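Recap quiz, item 2
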Amino acid sequence: MKDKDRHVLTEAELARYERQILYRDLGREGQMRLKQSHVVVAGLGGLGCSASLHLASTGVGHITLVDSDRVELSNLNRQVLHYEEDIGEKKPFSAARKLAKLNSSIEVTPVFEKITEDNAEEIIKAADLVIDGMDNLETRFVLNKACVALGTPLIHGGVHGLLGQVTTIIPGKTPCLACMLPEVPPRRGLFPVFSVTPGVIAMLQVAEAIKVLAGFGSLLTGKMLYFNGETMDFTCRNVIRNPNCRVCGTKEIQK
Amino acid sequence: MTIKVRLHPVLQKLAGGREVIEVNGHTTSECLEKVEGRFPDIRRLIRDKRGQLRRHCRILVNCESANAHGLATAVKDGDQIDIVVLITGG
């Protein structure tokens, strides 16, 4: 993106995003905020692929893609940014190539790294928001801790089979993941998953991200939305902040 | 002595749509068995063939983990037990 274009919507952008700019609560101003936003997508699996695809098409100006895995054949049933020709390729680079073809006006940064306690804050420090596309709880908790430490909104998503869940974590205002689960359970092996479940959950994560970044609408803050694709139920449950939470318990609660 | 057992949303259908089931019991284990006795489908979902709690299920007592104590955590009137099903894939 040229510097002179950073603070205006170009003719091409106005045309590309015309239909969403028509949405009154977004408008040109909201579209500009999306353009100036930086989102880190942590994990380029089922959730991360679908989420980053739609963040890019919506016009989020800078997307950083983080994953430490390479594409495998068994990923292709749900990880929609990786194709047969990408097998063996580093996932962030495979995904970045597709996003660049979809929307060349945004900046995409691939990061081939495993998120750890040591690097998590460094990876997300420049981000306005983080999308949780992790495939295990251990790394999710690392991400959660880093987001709470930096005050960065985290849109959590999780899937298993035809079940999914999503919530929006605003550090200092809402419960964090550690409030909801006081311990990190042992890592599990392969989990069953269809393509549709991360598709549904990632779309909800992106919807939350757009509202957080552009500043409109109601959020899934303090609420976990559960999706059951087998019974086609959506259920929302309140989640409460744990004042003794090992991660956010000492953070002052903002009104 | 009434203990509230709160079911994870994915378990509620197996209990006729109930979110909270009230039972009597002195330990987490006792309370869970009463819930599972009334709703055997819940037992099938949260226990393996040997009767062990499945790894994707966590039990909280008043928002604190009870798994580490082998479900022997003592409970008292007014306590709340949560059965949580982890949805952790991506």
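Chain A has one domain: 37-238.
Chain A touches chain B through 36 residues (CB under 8 Å).
End of item.
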